[in-house]
């Protein structure tokens, strides 16, 4: 289940494989990102919470990242990023220190004025 708000851009044709994620194994996120405004600079706020025994959500990740560094890693583009459609393919490994279970992830991107450009929320299962 995911929810996305889009003010300056949108995410389409996204996929996460394998799903559910496997503890300690590689995963790939692929998709297409569309932006209708130039991204000069910005931040991305990423949070990841773990549902501990259906009692409490424990925040394991709460990071603010430079959006321009993130676009280099994800899209291989340096800021300013002009309006357009961009393909991405990102591979990483599920950290072994994350226990199996249900996670809630949220990533919110802000432009240089602090305006929300896009927000992505997703529930993730790790086996």
UniProtKB/TrEMBL annotation:
Signal peptide positions (record): none
SMART domains hit by this protein: ML
Molecular-function annotations in GO: sterol binding
MD-2-related lipid-recognition domain sequence ranges: 7-124
Top-level taxon in the UniProt lineage: Eukaryota
Pfam families, per database record: E1_DerP2_DerF2
InterPro entries for this protein: Ig_E-set, ML_dom, NPC2-like
Keywords annotated in UniProt: Lipid transport, Signal, Transport
GO biological process, one term: sterol transport
Family named by the database record: Belongs to the NPC2 family.
Free-text function comment from the UniProt entry: Catalyzes the intermembrane transfer of phosphatidylglycerol and phosphatidylinositol.
Oligomer status and interactors: Monomer.
Alphabetical list of PANTHER family matching this protein: NIEMANN PICK TYPE C2 PROTEIN NPC2-RELATED, PHOSPHATIDYLGLYCEROL_PHOSPHATIDYLINOSITOL TRANSFER PROTEIN
UniProt name for this protein: MD-2-related lipid-recognition domain-containing protein
